[in-house]
Amino acid sequence: MSLLLKALCGGSLAALALAATLFAPVVAAAGAAQESAPQRVFVVLSAGTDDDLQMLDVGRRFFEETLTGDGGVRVAGTRDSEGVVMDCLEQIGLDPATARECRLRAARRAMVRWVLELDLGAESAIGRTVTLDVWDPVENHKDFTATEIMEADLSLEEVRDTLQRLARRFRESPVAMRSLGQPPDSGGGGGGGEGGGSVGDGPETLISQPPTAGCEVIGGSCVEIHGPLARDAVRLSGRAVGHTPTPGACGGYVGDDPGHTLVLHSDARGARLRVIADAATVLVIEGPGGSFCAEGGRNTPVVLARDLGAGVWRIRVGTASLNSSHAYRLDIGAY
Protein backbone atom coordinates (compact mmCIF):
# COMPACT_ATOMS: atom_id res chain seq x y z
CA MET A 1 0.00 0.00 0.00
CA SER A 2 1.03 3.62 -0.33
CA LEU A 3 3.16 4.78 2.58
CA LEU A 4 1.01 7.91 2.81
CA LEU A 5 -2.06 5.75 3.40
CA LYS A 6 -0.23 3.60 5.97
CA ALA A 7 0.80 6.67 7.89
CA LEU A 8 -2.77 7.98 8.03
CA CYS A 9 -4.05 4.57 9.11
CA GLY A 10 -1.96 4.58 12.27
CA GLY A 11 1.60 4.39 11.03
CA SER A 12 4.52 5.93 12.86
CA LEU A 13 5.59 9.56 12.65
CA ALA A 14 8.70 8.29 10.87
CA ALA A 15 6.52 6.64 8.22
CA LEU A 16 4.54 9.86 7.84
CA ALA A 17 7.75 11.82 7.42
CA LEU A 18 9.00 9.37 4.81
CA ALA A 19 5.67 9.59 2.97
CA ALA A 20 6.12 13.37 2.83
CA THR A 21 9.48 12.94 1.14
CA LEU A 22 8.10 10.41 -1.37
CA PHE A 23 5.32 12.68 -2.65
CA ALA A 24 7.84 14.83 -4.51
CA PRO A 25 7.26 16.96 -7.64
CA VAL A 26 9.49 17.51 -10.58
CA VAL A 27 9.24 20.82 -12.44
CA ALA A 28 9.60 20.34 -16.20
CA ALA A 29 10.53 23.08 -18.67
CA ALA A 30 9.69 22.80 -22.33
CA GLY A 31 13.19 23.85 -23.41
CA ALA A 32 15.19 26.98 -23.92
CA ALA A 33 13.23 27.94 -27.01
CA GLN A 34 9.86 27.68 -25.26
CA GLU A 35 8.31 30.87 -23.91
CA SER A 36 5.58 29.13 -21.87
CA ALA A 37 5.78 28.55 -18.12
CA PRO A 38 7.49 25.37 -16.90
CA GLN A 39 5.27 22.33 -16.62
CA ARG A 40 5.05 20.83 -13.14
CA VAL A 41 4.60 17.14 -12.34
CA PHE A 42 4.31 15.13 -9.13
CA VAL A 43 6.17 11.85 -8.68
CA VAL A 44 4.40 9.42 -6.31
CA LEU A 45 5.86 6.09 -5.13
CA SER A 46 3.93 3.07 -3.86
CA ALA A 47 4.76 -0.56 -3.01
CA GLY A 48 3.41 -3.45 -0.99
CA THR A 49 6.06 -3.34 1.75
CA ASP A 50 8.20 -0.72 3.46
CA ASP A 51 11.37 -2.43 2.16
CA ASP A 52 10.12 -2.24 -1.43
CA LEU A 53 9.14 1.38 -0.92
CA GLN A 54 12.60 2.16 0.41
CA MET A 55 14.14 0.50 -2.65
CA LEU A 56 11.98 2.64 -4.95
CA ASP A 57 12.93 5.73 -2.96
CA VAL A 58 16.64 4.95 -3.34
CA GLY A 59 16.21 4.45 -7.08
CA ARG A 60 14.01 7.51 -7.56
CA ARG A 61 16.95 9.83 -8.10
CA PHE A 62 17.92 7.84 -11.19
CA PHE A 63 14.37 8.23 -12.51
CA GLU A 64 14.48 11.97 -11.88
CA GLU A 65 17.97 12.37 -13.36
CA THR A 66 16.81 10.72 -16.58
CA LEU A 67 13.63 12.78 -16.60
CA THR A 68 15.69 15.96 -16.15
CA GLY A 69 18.59 14.99 -18.39
CA ASP A 70 18.08 17.79 -20.92
CA GLY A 71 18.63 20.45 -18.25
CA GLY A 72 15.09 21.83 -18.52
CA VAL A 73 13.75 20.11 -15.37
CA ARG A 74 14.21 20.88 -11.69
CA VAL A 75 12.96 19.34 -8.42
CA ALA A 76 10.84 21.48 -6.07
CA GLY A 77 9.34 21.11 -2.58
CA THR A 78 5.77 19.93 -1.93
CA ARG A 79 4.85 21.06 1.58
CA ASP A 80 1.63 22.84 0.56
CA SER A 81 0.51 20.02 -1.73
CA GLU A 82 1.11 17.40 0.96
CA GLY A 83 -1.21 19.37 3.24
CA VAL A 84 -3.93 19.33 0.57
CA VAL A 85 -3.58 15.56 0.19
CA MET A 86 -3.69 14.92 3.94
CA ASP A 87 -6.78 17.12 4.45
CA CYS A 88 -8.52 15.53 1.48
CA LEU A 89 -7.87 11.98 2.71
CA GLU A 90 -9.18 12.82 6.15
CA GLN A 91 -12.37 14.24 4.62
CA ILE A 92 -13.05 11.65 1.91
CA GLY A 93 -11.53 8.35 3.06
CA LEU A 94 -8.54 6.09 2.65
CA ASP A 95 -9.30 3.68 -0.19
CA PRO A 96 -7.01 3.71 -3.26
CA ALA A 97 -9.55 5.44 -5.52
CA THR A 98 -9.98 8.40 -3.19
CA ALA A 99 -6.24 8.50 -2.55
CA ARG A 100 -5.67 9.11 -6.25
CA GLU A 101 -8.45 11.70 -6.35
CA CYS A 102 -6.78 13.54 -3.47
CA ARG A 103 -3.43 13.51 -5.28
CA LEU A 104 -5.10 14.85 -8.42
CA ARG A 105 -6.89 17.50 -6.37
CA ALA A 106 -3.56 18.63 -4.93
CA ALA A 107 -2.05 18.59 -8.41
CA ARG A 108 -4.84 20.78 -9.78
CA ARG A 109 -4.40 23.23 -6.94
CA ALA A 110 -0.65 23.35 -7.55
CA MET A 111 -1.26 23.71 -11.32
CA VAL A 112 0.90 20.72 -12.24
CA ARG A 113 0.69 19.08 -15.67
CA TRP A 114 0.90 15.40 -14.66
CA VAL A 115 0.96 13.09 -11.66
CA LEU A 116 3.51 10.31 -12.22
CA GLU A 117 2.81 7.17 -10.16
CA LEU A 118 5.58 4.57 -9.81
CA ASP A 119 4.40 1.27 -8.31
CA LEU A 120 6.55 -1.76 -7.44
CA GLY A 121 4.45 -4.91 -7.65
CA ALA A 122 4.72 -8.06 -5.56
CA GLU A 123 6.84 -11.03 -6.60
CA SER A 124 5.22 -13.32 -9.16
CA ALA A 125 6.17 -16.12 -11.54
CA ILE A 126 7.49 -13.59 -14.06
CA GLY A 127 9.47 -11.53 -11.54
CA ARG A 128 8.72 -8.05 -10.18
CA THR A 129 6.84 -5.42 -12.18
CA VAL A 130 7.37 -1.68 -11.97
CA THR A 131 4.51 0.33 -13.46
CA LEU A 132 4.53 4.01 -14.39
CA ASP A 133 1.09 5.62 -14.68
CA VAL A 134 0.88 9.25 -15.80
CA TRP A 135 -2.34 11.09 -14.95
CA ASP A 136 -3.68 14.39 -16.24
CA PRO A 137 -5.15 15.98 -13.07
CA VAL A 138 -7.40 18.38 -14.96
CA GLU A 139 -9.00 15.76 -17.22
CA ASN A 140 -8.74 13.00 -14.57
CA HIS A 141 -7.41 10.81 -17.39
CA LYS A 142 -4.45 8.45 -17.65
CA ASP A 143 -2.29 9.83 -20.46
CA PHE A 144 0.41 7.17 -20.39
CA THR A 145 1.29 3.88 -18.73
CA ALA A 146 4.27 1.55 -19.09
CA THR A 147 5.47 -1.56 -17.28
CA GLU A 148 8.93 -3.05 -16.88
CA ILE A 149 9.74 -6.47 -15.42
CA MET A 150 12.69 -7.10 -13.08
CA GLU A 151 14.16 -10.21 -11.52
CA ALA A 152 12.54 -11.21 -8.23
CA ASP A 153 15.85 -10.74 -6.38
CA LEU A 154 16.08 -6.94 -6.54
CA SER A 155 19.40 -5.15 -6.83
CA LEU A 156 20.07 -1.41 -6.85
CA GLU A 157 21.56 -1.69 -10.35
CA GLU A 158 18.44 -3.35 -11.72
CA VAL A 159 16.13 -0.85 -10.03
CA ARG A 160 18.27 1.99 -11.42
CA ASP A 161 18.20 0.63 -14.98
CA THR A 162 14.48 -0.10 -14.83
CA LEU A 163 13.50 3.35 -13.56
CA GLN A 164 15.74 5.00 -16.14
CA ARG A 165 14.02 3.04 -18.92
CA LEU A 166 10.58 4.08 -17.65
CA ALA A 167 11.64 7.73 -17.51
CA ARG A 168 12.96 7.56 -21.09
CA ARG A 169 9.82 5.83 -22.33
CA PHE A 170 7.66 8.61 -20.93
CA ARG A 171 9.91 11.45 -22.13
CA GLU A 172 9.99 9.89 -25.63
CA SER A 173 6.23 9.23 -25.76
CA PRO A 174 4.21 11.36 -28.19
CA VAL A 175 2.06 12.83 -25.40
CA ALA A 176 5.11 14.06 -23.46
CA MET A 177 7.01 15.30 -26.50
CA ARG A 178 4.05 17.33 -27.71
CA SER A 179 3.52 18.88 -24.31
CA LEU A 180 7.21 19.74 -24.08
CA GLY A 181 7.16 21.33 -27.53
CA GLN A 182 9.07 18.55 -29.29
CA PRO A 183 7.84 16.73 -32.43
CA PRO A 184 7.16 13.03 -31.72
CA ASP A 185 8.87 10.36 -33.77
CA SER A 186 6.49 8.83 -36.26
CA GLY A 187 8.12 5.90 -38.04
CA GLY A 188 10.29 2.88 -37.49
CA GLY A 189 9.66 -0.54 -35.97
CA GLY A 190 8.79 -1.17 -32.36
CA GLY A 191 5.83 0.02 -30.38
CA GLY A 192 5.18 2.97 -28.13
CA GLY A 193 3.03 3.78 -25.11
CA GLU A 194 1.60 1.66 -22.33
CA GLY A 195 2.98 -1.80 -21.93
CA GLY A 196 4.91 -1.71 -25.22
CA GLY A 197 8.40 -0.69 -26.23
CA SER A 198 9.59 2.85 -26.81
CA VAL A 199 8.64 4.90 -29.86
CA GLY A 200 10.50 3.74 -32.94
CA ASP A 201 13.34 5.65 -34.56
CA GLY A 202 11.94 6.21 -38.00
CA PRO A 203 11.51 9.09 -40.44
CA GLU A 204 9.74 12.11 -38.96
CA THR A 205 7.50 12.56 -42.02
CA LEU A 206 4.12 10.88 -41.59
CA ILE A 207 3.45 8.54 -44.52
CA SER A 208 -0.10 8.49 -45.85
CA GLN A 209 -1.78 6.36 -48.51
CA PRO A 210 -5.44 7.43 -48.68
CA PRO A 211 -7.64 4.32 -48.97
CA THR A 212 -9.19 3.43 -52.30
CA ALA A 213 -11.82 1.20 -50.66
CA GLY A 214 -13.80 1.25 -47.45
CA CYS A 215 -15.15 -1.35 -45.05
CA GLU A 216 -18.01 -2.26 -47.36
CA VAL A 217 -15.41 -3.72 -49.72
CA ILE A 218 -12.84 -4.97 -47.19
CA GLY A 219 -15.41 -6.75 -45.00
CA GLY A 220 -14.72 -8.61 -41.75
CA SER A 221 -14.08 -6.75 -38.50
CA CYS A 222 -13.47 -3.37 -40.09
CA VAL A 223 -13.66 0.16 -38.68
CA GLU A 224 -13.79 3.19 -40.95
CA ILE A 225 -13.02 6.69 -39.63
CA HIS A 226 -13.47 9.81 -41.75
CA GLY A 227 -12.48 12.56 -39.32
CA PRO A 228 -10.26 13.06 -36.27
CA LEU A 229 -10.12 10.25 -33.73
CA ALA A 230 -12.16 10.73 -30.56
CA ARG A 231 -10.58 9.79 -27.23
CA ASP A 232 -12.74 6.63 -26.98
CA ALA A 233 -13.70 6.09 -30.59
CA VAL A 234 -14.11 2.33 -31.04
CA ARG A 235 -14.23 -0.80 -28.87
CA LEU A 236 -13.68 -4.23 -30.47
CA SER A 237 -13.14 -7.75 -29.18
CA GLY A 238 -11.77 -11.03 -30.47
CA ARG A 239 -9.48 -13.95 -29.77
CA ALA A 240 -5.71 -13.62 -29.92
CA VAL A 241 -3.99 -16.42 -31.80
CA GLY A 242 -0.32 -17.34 -32.13
CA HIS A 243 0.69 -19.31 -35.21
CA THR A 244 3.71 -17.47 -36.62
CA PRO A 245 6.54 -15.37 -35.05
CA THR A 246 5.69 -11.72 -34.58
CA PRO A 247 7.33 -9.44 -37.18
CA GLY A 248 9.53 -6.63 -35.91
CA ALA A 249 11.07 -6.07 -32.50
CA CYS A 250 8.39 -7.71 -30.33
CA GLY A 251 8.30 -11.30 -29.16
CA GLY A 252 5.43 -13.75 -29.25
CA TYR A 253 3.30 -15.06 -32.07
CA VAL A 254 0.43 -13.79 -34.21
CA GLY A 255 -2.07 -15.17 -36.67
CA ASP A 256 -1.52 -15.27 -40.41
CA ASP A 257 -4.46 -12.96 -41.12
CA PRO A 258 -5.45 -9.68 -39.47
CA GLY A 259 -8.19 -9.81 -36.88
CA HIS A 260 -9.31 -6.23 -37.58
CA THR A 261 -8.88 -3.53 -40.21
CA LEU A 262 -8.74 0.20 -39.49
CA VAL A 263 -9.48 2.47 -42.46
CA LEU A 264 -8.37 6.07 -41.91
CA HIS A 265 -9.49 8.68 -44.46
CA SER A 266 -7.25 11.31 -42.87
CA ASP A 267 -4.10 11.30 -40.76
CA ALA A 268 -4.74 10.28 -37.14
CA ARG A 269 -2.43 12.35 -34.96
CA GLY A 270 -2.10 10.89 -31.49
CA ALA A 271 -3.77 7.53 -32.19
CA ARG A 272 -3.81 4.95 -29.42
CA LEU A 273 -4.62 1.23 -29.65
CA ARG A 274 -5.07 -0.45 -26.26
CA VAL A 275 -5.51 -4.20 -25.70
CA ILE A 276 -6.75 -5.76 -22.43
CA ALA A 277 -6.46 -9.53 -21.89
CA ASP A 278 -5.92 -11.98 -19.06
CA ALA A 279 -2.81 -13.43 -20.71
CA ALA A 280 0.42 -12.07 -22.19
CA THR A 281 -0.42 -10.39 -25.49
CA VAL A 282 1.30 -8.82 -28.50
CA LEU A 283 -0.25 -6.16 -30.76
CA VAL A 284 0.88 -5.60 -34.36
CA ILE A 285 -0.41 -2.97 -36.80
CA GLU A 286 0.69 -2.76 -40.43
CA GLY A 287 -0.05 0.03 -42.85
CA PRO A 288 1.41 3.15 -44.48
CA GLY A 289 4.91 3.69 -43.15
CA GLY A 290 5.53 0.15 -41.94
CA SER A 291 4.76 -2.30 -39.17
CA PHE A 292 4.66 -1.41 -35.47
CA CYS A 293 4.19 -3.54 -32.38
CA ALA A 294 3.79 -3.52 -28.60
CA GLU A 295 3.61 -6.31 -26.05
CA GLY A 296 2.71 -6.82 -22.42
CA GLY A 297 2.18 -9.39 -19.69
CA ARG A 298 -0.94 -10.86 -18.16
CA ASN A 299 -3.52 -8.22 -17.14
CA THR A 300 -1.09 -5.51 -18.28
CA PRO A 301 -2.61 -3.17 -20.89
CA VAL A 302 -0.77 -3.35 -24.20
CA VAL A 303 -0.84 0.08 -25.78
CA LEU A 304 0.61 1.34 -29.02
CA ALA A 305 0.47 5.15 -29.18
CA ARG A 306 1.70 7.03 -32.24
CA ASP A 307 0.64 9.07 -35.25
CA LEU A 308 -0.95 6.99 -38.02
CA GLY A 309 -1.13 8.13 -41.62
CA ALA A 310 -4.27 7.94 -43.72
CA GLY A 311 -4.74 4.53 -45.27
CA VAL A 312 -5.61 0.94 -44.45
CA TRP A 313 -4.13 -0.45 -41.21
CA ARG A 314 -4.31 -4.18 -40.53
CA ILE A 315 -4.34 -5.22 -36.87
CA ARG A 316 -3.21 -8.55 -35.46
CA VAL A 317 -3.45 -9.49 -31.77
CA GLY A 318 -1.23 -12.40 -30.82
CA THR A 319 0.01 -14.43 -27.87
CA ALA A 320 3.25 -15.00 -25.99
CA SER A 321 3.13 -18.77 -26.59
CA LEU A 322 3.01 -20.67 -29.86
CA ASN A 323 -0.37 -22.17 -30.82
CA SER A 324 -2.21 -20.60 -27.89
CA SER A 325 -5.33 -18.45 -27.84
CA HIS A 326 -7.20 -16.13 -25.46
CA ALA A 327 -9.92 -13.48 -25.53
CA TYR A 328 -9.12 -9.75 -25.62
CA ARG A 329 -10.69 -6.31 -25.85
CA LEU A 330 -9.28 -3.66 -28.21
CA ASP A 331 -9.94 0.05 -27.74
CA ILE A 332 -9.02 2.48 -30.53
CA GLY A 333 -9.00 6.22 -29.91
CA ALA A 334 -6.82 9.25 -29.27
CA TYR A 335 -4.67 10.04 -26.27
Write up what this structure looks like:
- With about 325 residues, the protein is of the alpha+beta class.
- It folds into two domains: about 5-180, no CATH class; about 200-335, Jelly Rolls, CATH 2.60.120.
- Helix content is about 25%, strand content about 35%.
- The protein has helices at about 5-10, 15-20, 50-65, 80-90, 95-110, 155-170, 175-180, 215-220; strands at about 25-30, 40-45, 75, 115-120, 130-135, 140-150, 220-225, 235-240, 245, 255, 260-265, 270-275, 280-285, 290-295, 300-310, 310-320, 325-335.
- It has a six-stranded mixed β-sheet with strand order 3-1-2-4-5-6.
- A hairpin with a 7-residue loop joins strand 4 and strand 5.
- Helix 3 packs across helix 6 (about 155-170) and helix 4 packs antiparallel against helix 5.
- The radius of gyration is 21 Å and the shape is globular.
- The model is unreliable at about 1-35 and about 185-205 (pLDDT under 50).
Mind sketching the topology for me?
Blueprint: H1 3-8, H2 13-22, E1 24-28, E2 39-47, H3 50-67, E3 73-75, H4 79-92, H5 96-110, E4 114-120, E5 128-136, E6 141-150, H6 156-171, H7 174-179, H8 215-218, E7 222-225, E8 234-241, E9 244-245, E10 253-254, E11 260-264, E12 268-277, E13 281-287, E14 290-296, E15 302-308, E16 311-319, E17 325-334
Parallel strand pairs: 2-4, 7-11
Antiparallel strand pairs: 1-2, 1-3, 4-5, 5-6, 8-17, 9-10, 11-16, 12-15, 12-17, 13-14, 13-16
